[in-house]
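Request: How about a record?
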Amino acid sequence: MNGDGREGGRRDDEVRGARRIPGPRGAVDDLDLEVVPRPVLPPGGNAPDEAVPEQGAPDEDRDVVPEAGAADEPDAVDPVDEPCVVDVTETADAVDGPEPAMTAAAAPVLSHQVLKALLGAWALSACSAEETAAVEDHLTVCAPCADEALRLRDAVGLLHTDGSLDLDPTLRTRVMDGCLGRRPARIPVPEWATPYDAETARLDALLRDIGDSEWHAPVRLQWFEDERAVTRRTTVAGVIGHLMAVDGLVSAALGLDDPLGRVEVPLSPTRRTETYWAATHPPATRAVREPWRDLTHELIRTASLAGRNVAERSVSYGDFALPLQDALLDRAFECWVHGTDIAEAVDYPYKPPSAAHLHRMIDLAARLLPAALAGRRSAGLAGPAKELVAPGEPGRSVHLEVEGHGGGDWYIPLDSPAAVGSPGRAVAQVALDGVEFCQLVAGHISPVEAAAGQEGDREAIRDVLFASASLSRL
């Protein structure tokens, strides 16, 4: 016998018919071994071939332990030479109770501390069947553990969500609406300025998430000029500097300081951008984010405080001018377009604007198309006018059908910017997706490849598509 009560190095489960000697108990007295069923040897298992005496009271006349080499005596039977024949009937009769396959596993009796420690594993479905049964029985009688189990199950649901981790683009609007519903702003942001407010906030959230090195990631800007695609390479920081330089046109119209300083610079957005880039040595870094964001806040604050008539204040772009409400909508469109350029450069998810804001951006482009058509006709780039009408009268039109997100129907007059588009005078119809139409206006896709469907006067359709691309600029 060894010191632990086992015979000659054999395992306890190799001794058949002997009483089990309990092993040492754990540090936590949480298991009653008397109620745990003893393991039953399977029929025909690895049973020893020699007979083992019953373990009972010690025999006073037998104090000698058999030597280990007794199996080498001539009378010993080699289990390899003699086949082991097991009487299945006798083995089955030796088992006390029903067969093992039919015996239900009894749940162990565990202490409150152990059951409480198992709640986390139970919430993750990581417990064994016996532990799960014990925990669930305990939850029916212990209210504190039941409350904790519910909280853990709710937390597990958050860990296994299949939803996107990106914030909903409408989250900011919903939060602001909820806040303003409780305490309305004394001076609310004008409705015509909300697209600019939303798009600058979305772009700022993207910039806040990227690392320092990504501010130097190359970005390819693209637009149409002289009937061909033009590209310009810059960095993420350079794009934000470009947005800030063009925002200076709006700040000048509102009487605010020009972000380019007191130096006299041309009013053209392209010339202002080139001037800013030439003056930025070394190249701009993430430090450009704060002045750009401060400028956008100041523009929104000033527009909100200026009163009703400020919406019609003219903002000069050099070659043309826009009312302030349309200028801020144009700036919102450019924030989204260049935000998409940055997102592609740094591999960041970036969704289109909300449907309501995108619809207003498409509407602005549709309202600018008649003047763009007239300008291309003067330059010999569009077909001649065929039916001149008096200002305000219905004229030949192209039905622009924008489908999907932010879509709608617009009728573009062809022969004069002073004419009125009319369904009754439509000579052609062109269908585009809402986002694709905006990409066409931004110069990101070719006019030849833009239309999803065309019907009617092909020349009129071509003129409208190329006029849409001509609205793009740096």
